[in-house]
Amino acid sequence: MTDLTRSLLDAAAALLAAHGSRGLRMVDVATRAGVSRQTVYNEFGNKETLVRAVALDKTDQFLAAVRDRLASAEDPLEGLHAAMVFVFTEAFRDPLTKSVFTGANAEDMLPLVTTRGHEILTASATVFASHLTTHWPDVPEDRRGLVAETAVRLAISHLLTPSGDAPAAVVAVTRALLA
Amino acid sequence: MTDLTRSLLDAAAALLAAHGSRGLRMVDVATRAGVSRQTVYNEFGNKETLVRAVALDKTDQFLAAVRDRLASAEDPLEGLHAAMVFVFTEAFRDPLTKSVFTGANAEDMLPLVTTRGHEILTASATVFASHLTTHWPDVPEDRRGLVAETAVRLAISHLLTPSGDAPAAVVAVTRALLA
DNA sequence: GTCTTTACAAAATCGAGCCTTGTGTAAAGC
DNA sequence: GCTTTACACAAGGCTCGATTTTGTAAAGAC
């Protein structure tokens, strides 16, 4: 990825978080990145593609960070905990990430969510299943997929409709998984 | 509940499912129920109250039916299965019920969903927790709440973003709970 | 007494026309 | 490879009546 692409994605992400996809203007993306509007078109073709690229980028960054947290500790349980803490703090901190994963603010963020719900779900579940494979041999192979999907579904559910604060959500998901 | 109230709720529910809350007209509710528009106002005061009453009614009907299924068999596992089958067939059959529980079609159904997510969650979890208490003594008391909430969250998650068809969702939720 | 009919004010919605803004494309220049 | 300028065109607002719908009120019918 070129520096230009990177700065355009960052600029677009910031504006997207502030004004929604409806209120996003290509001129503003260009100005914020210090380039001309035409350059944005050379790079992404059109607005829809740009918005989708931001969503893709956010997803990748977020899942990479989750993967890091999962692998951050020797003890797999500790890794799981670190990952869950990250998921909830980050999703509450960054409204754009939250929108991508939960479909919140469907009003402003429609293009981020449309039909990608299932895609996001399986991508996230794959990350988690891979962690189970390498760090959690107790989980039998034939249950790995289900456990991973359940973890992701529960996490997303707690993002969408929280029962309590972020730490409470971490506890709830973790305990549910360890049943 | 009077017969009048009942038929007004049914008429409103049908029209709501067909045209959304935005396209719902009080005259049509009246006509469909065979009464005058004024009678609708005498009964519900205004449109917003009527729509909320329909949502409340749908919730009650649905949870009562779930409760029946849970208690339908001697074997608690069989009851759980029957309830899950009902949840998924019914939610896919009746778009209005699905909207109430998942917030789908937020466009047309806004008043049904607004801020009621948590309320619906706890109401449903309570129904399930009560089933655990009476039919499933294996679950220790201090885990009952968590198990119930997890069951509901997973079910709603599968309604919102299905991995497969309805039977597959039933299997996924059931197996996740029995882990 | 409960529901209907009729009447009416206030608010929301709609459609047409117009103007402004933003998108997307193209070409010439640095 | 990026900028500047220019332009066609579609989308979004805005205004202004006309219409529809909401919500209230009163008088009458079963």
Task: Kindly list the characteristics that best describe this protein.
10 helices, mainly alpha, homodimer, elongated, DNA-binding, Tetracycline Repressor, domain 2, 179 residues
Summarize, please.
Two copies of one chain form a homodimer. Chain A has 179 residues and is mainly alpha-helical.
Taking Cα atoms only, what radius of gyration of chain A do you get, to the nearest Å? 18 Å
Shape of chain A: elongated
Supply the helix-strand structural class of chain A: mainly alpha
Overall residue-averaged pLDDT value of chain A: 92
Could you explain the architecture of this structure?
- The structure is a homodimer of 179-residue chains.
- By secondary structure, chain A is mostly helical.
- Chain A has a domain at 54-177: Tetracycline Repressor, domain 2 (Orthogonal Bundle), CATH 1.10.357.
- Chain A is 79% helix and 0% strand.
- Chain A contains ten helices and no strands.
- The first copy, chain A, is elongated and about 55 Å long.
- The termini of chain A are far apart.
- The model of chain A has no long low-confidence stretch (mean pLDDT 92).
- Chain A binds a DNA duplex (30 and 30 nucleotides) through helix 3.
